[in-house]
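Session log. Operator J.P. requested a structure for one protein chain; no other inputs attached. Running the standard single-chain path with token output.
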Amino acid sequence: MSKKIVVPVVLVLVATLGAFFAINSQLTSPQSSPAQSQGLGKVNIQFASTGLDPASQGQGNGQGHTTTGAVTNVVIRLTKVEIHAANSTGNDGWTTLNVPETIIDFTQSTSVSTIINGASLPAGKYNQIRLFTDHVTVSIRSGENLIQRTLNIPSGKIEVPITPGGFDLAQSGTVNVTLTFTFNANELAHNPKNMTPVVKTQVA
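Structure written below.
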């Protein structure tokens, strides 16, 4: 009679232990992070230039002075690029994109330089780009002489809104962003300290 009792007890014990381990494994299994569950897309960023505004070469500076030479080169050294998520506020939404230190001559209207190639970002909406720079050199030719000036960009960065209203990056999707720079030669020739390029975005 004791054998008839032992068998059901053993079966109940095995079933109980099996249920315990099944629940415990679910509780301890790694959970995916929100970023992982959201999925990733890729962003390419390239720089283009319209060159120097031809109408600005040789103009006065508004104070009776004229440009003594023509601007031949505008070289900017970029050290870092950041992009901002539209659904974030303050500094929380900025992501730093890995980029090698890059030197670009923006006076060549046909030049296009890809600085970010396939950066992985969480899917979502992005509305602004920051370009950090620590070195700007402007070359001005006056007769046979070539004069070089080192200028600063205020705050060491260029903040570029992505118009109109930013772009949506889909999971496994790719977005191409072109930043087009325009410079006023007269302003560069007469401003010995600072420069602020005009930058427009195009998204494809």
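Operator note: The first helix runs from residue 2 to 28.
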